[in-house]
Amino acid sequence: MSERIQGIITKGIGGTYTVGASTGVLYLCQIRGGIRKSGLTPAVGDNVLISESGDPDIPYVLEKILPRKNSLVRPPMANVDALILCFAVKDPEPDLKLLDKMLIICGKNGIKPIIVFTKCDLDSEYAQTLYDDYSKTGISCYMSFKDNKPSVEALFEACGDAVLVGFAGPSGVGKSTLCNNMLGNEFMAVGDISERLGRGKHTTRHVELFSYEGKYLTDTPGFTSLDLLELGYEYKDVICGYPDINELSIGCKFDDCRHISERDCAVKSEIGISISKDRYERYKEFNEFLYSMRNNYGGGIRK
Known about the structure:
This protein has seven helices and 15 strands. The chain is about 25% helix and about 25% strand.
């Protein structure tokens, strides 16, 4: 049996995977039948063991997928350390429910979120409001203008010791541009907005990791929806996306306080002060919906 090599999946298209080793060498691989039978689908970001296949066209095979730190459906990645969440202030209009859902997913999976509001030139007043609301959470937030984008140094500093960093958010908000700025090269295709649909064109077709400055960075395909119930989240998970609410909850009278209708809740008195009213309403909507699904239907149906 040939020697096994450990590496990370940097790209996967059509059942063929590119695996990068610590030496910097890239290997073209397919998966063994054992992985197929396990029901586990390899994902970009997976740490894997590979070996020689004997096939000159696809010279290596994936032998084993090592234990994952986390696994995401959107964007489809594994072992993510940080996500830079990009949302335009306008064109396309920001879907703040989607942003908050992404923050819930980050919190639940131990992923550090960083928020960048782009196209702030189009509505600087609204951009400032969004920046103020989300900065209150303690999450690193940035505003990006046409001639004044967040510095590469600032974004790298916000990532901290994160190794695998992804950009996520809707199409047409400038993810590829920011990612290219950090990489220092134009690896990603940059698109514009579809006039007919009023949303971004999908210029990024797949997830691919690029090694840079000791990190792996990647742009991801844009998406416009996430279903927390479909992803298996429960009402207790919603708090993961609201660190400001979670911090205040230590002052609540009841340990199981949902911060909605309970007495002596330390959170509700801060709504509109240290907690954005709009963000609280989204927290309440997510929590009540998932709570009702759990109690009335056992989580068995979708909204």
